Amino acid sequence: MKDLKLAAALPNGKRSVMDIGGVKVGEGLVVIAGPCSVESEEQVLRTAVAVKEAGAHMLRGGAFKPRTSPYAFQGLGLKGLKILEKARNETGLPIVTEVIDTRDVSWVGEYADVLQIGARNMQNFSLLREAGKSGRPILLKRGMYSTLEEWLNCAEYILAEGNSSVFLCERGIRSFETYTRNTLDLSMVPAVHAESHLPIFIDPSHGTGILDMIEPMSLAAVAAGADGLEIEVHIDPSTALSDKNQQLTPAAFAKLMDKIRRLRAFMDEMQATGGAGAL
Ligand code: PEP
Ligand code: MN
Which of 68, 143, 222, 271 is least buried, going by the fewest C-beta atoms within 10 A? Predict the structure, then answer.
C-alpha cells in the first residue's frame, strides 16, 4: 500500500511481537476481556478475577466512554482508572483502557498498560500523535467507516512518533445491514496479515452486538488466524451501564475460552503437520 513506511508488511514476512507486562501480543492467541465500562470497584474486581480464572490475558474496561448521547453514562474517569489499577495489582492482568482526549493521554498512560483508541477516534490525528509520543502500547480499533488503507495509515501516525507497539482491532463497520450492530469484517485478519506486520485482533462484542453471535464469531476469528480477541464480560450484564446486551457472563466466557483453546490447539497441530496456511 502506498505511503506506508512503518506499518507495511516486511519483505521477510516477519510479524511484530510486543511484550506487554509479560503478555506477548503477536505470538499465540491473546484474549482481552472485561466490562464495557468501569462501574464500581466490586464490579471490576469480581470480573477481573473471573476472566483471569477463565484464562484471559489482559483486562479491559472503559473509564472514558464515547457515548452516542451526551446524557448517557460517560465513565468514571480518574476514579475508574484507580479501580483498574487495583484490579491489576490483585490479578496481575495488564490493563487496556480507552483514551478519548489528547489532554488525557499522558496521565491515563500512567494507569494503563495499553491505551485503546476507539472506532470513533481512529482518524483523530492529534490523538494518534499524542498516543505515539506516550510510548505506551496502543490498541487501534478500526473506524466504522474506514478502509484498510485509512486504518493502516492511522497506525502509521503512531509509529511515526517512534512508538513501535501498535496492534489493531477489527470491531465491525457500518453497512446496509441493520440486523447486527455492525458488520464484522473477518476478512481483515488475512488482509492485515498480507499488508502489515502489526497484530490484528477481533472484537466480536461490538462487531455483532448480539450475545449469541459472540461465540461463533470468536471461533471464526481464531480459525482465520487472528492474533487475539477483545471480548466484553460483565459480572451481571443485566445491570450494566453500557452495552448490556452484548456482555457475556463470566460463566459463558469460561465456556467460550475452553472452546477457543481447543480450536487454537487444533489449528496449531494442523499447521505443524503442514495442513494450514501461514497462521
Ligand atoms: C470499546 O471497546 O469500549 C468501544 C467503545 O469500542 P469501539 O470503539 O470499537 O466502538
Ligand atoms: Mn462496549
Answer: 68
Buried-state track 177-199, b at ≥16 Cβ within 10 A, e below 16: eeeebbbbbbebbebbbebbbbb
pTM for the structure as a whole:
0.97
CA distances from 17 to 120, 167, 241 (A): 26, 9, 35
Instruction: Supply 204's cell numbers.
Output: 466480536
Please give the C-alpha separations between residue 128 and each of 26, 90, 116, 134, 204, in angstroms, as whole numbers: 21, 31, 11, 10, 24
Give the contacts of 273 (CB within 8 A, at least 6 positions apart). none
pLDDT tens figures, 176-185? 999 999 999 9
For ligand 1, mutation pick of 84, 206, 246, 247 (most atoms within 8 Å of CB): 206
**Atom of ligand 1 at shortest range from CA of 62:** 3
85-107 pLDDT, tens per residue?
999 999 999 999 999 999 999 99
Average pLDDT over residues 144-170: 98
